[in-house]
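Retro notes (design track)

What went well: tokenization of the new backbones is finally stable.
What didn't: we kept losing track of which sequence belonged to which structure.
Fix going forward: every design gets posted as structure first, then sequence, in one message. First example under the new rule, 85 residues:
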């Protein structure tokens, strides 16, 4: 079979980090996981904003979200024909 989409690696990193930081499943964490599984970084950012993360945690999760968004955009760019902008 084919390889997984590039965004899968970023999603896995993001989910692993969140599960380590947010050990107890709760509605907000579940909502965030659903946003990630549904490839919705905008919703994930809205949910993340509601957590009481430290500045360091917030910067880290922000970088993970940025990486995920870049990979999602890369997936879209990969579908364009050569020479398309």
């Amino acid at each position: 079979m084919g390889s997984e989409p590039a965004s899968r690696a970023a999603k896995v990193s993001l989910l692993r980090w969140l599960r380590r930081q947010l050990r107890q499943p709760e509605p907000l964490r579940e909502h965030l996981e659903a946003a990630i599984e549904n490839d919705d970084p905008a919703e994930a950012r809205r949910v993340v904003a509601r957590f009481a993360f430290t500045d360091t945690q917030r910067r880290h999760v922000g970088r993970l979200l940025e990486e995920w968004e870049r990979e999602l955009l890369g997936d879209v760019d990969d579908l364009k024909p050569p020479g398309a902008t």
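Added context from the reviewer: Residues 7-75 form one domain.
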